[in-house]
Amino acid sequence: MSLNGRYPFFCVAKKSKKLFRYFTSTFILFHNCFVYWKYIVIHTVIYWRRQQMNKIVAIVVVCGFTLAACGAKEETAVDQPITEKEVPILVEEPLHDEGQGAISVNGSVADEDQHIHEPDEHTTCEMCNMHVYEKNDAMGMFSTKAIKKDGTVIFYDDIGCLLNDEVAKNETNEKYVRDFNNLKWAKVEDVTIVKTTLKTPMNWGYAYFIEEQDARSYIGQNEGAYIEKLETIKVQAKMKYEQKMKQQGKMGDMPNNE
Known about the structure:
By secondary structure, the chain is an alpha+beta fold. It contains 5 helices and 9 strands. The protein is rod-shaped, with a radius of gyration of 53 Å.
């Protein structure tokens, strides 16, 4: 009979000792694994945090150097005196050269392309000294104006005076008339001229239209109105002027009976 059979307690103790060793070894193994992985995790976190801190420190250092450099530049800009070259020099230039729309009225210079000059209540015709109607007057649409070569703006009460002033003074000006509808200024050569039955300041009876369609529309609505050529009006104006000069000459030749 074996020892295990004789002494059952001894067999149980022997098995218990083996189990104890097994569990002890297993526990030690798991414990070592836990410690090892804990070590790995802790050092990984520490390494990651160090990397993050290094990045943050690098960013802070770069920002600090940038701010310091900007501050140094600002101080240099403040302390540095302004030289003559750095001061912008504004040079007043005329809006247009002579002959390109520059005008002079009462010593002022402006851009006639904007037509800022208008007759006022004291304006008289350059040719006949009659009153020149303002833009908003009932007959203001018939007022005309011219720009001399020296840039001077002059006004007339009707187209006849506008044309005859050139004949009388033997000069050529830029001549403007008003559009019948919107009262805008336009060169007399660029408009459509319509002979009407309207009463005008010097009884010429002409209306002016920037758009030819507007002129034809007016003719269709007003019986007796028709389109007239500028050259025809120039001939008529010159004939009237010469006739007037002859009459004035005859009156000057008449004896004084006083």
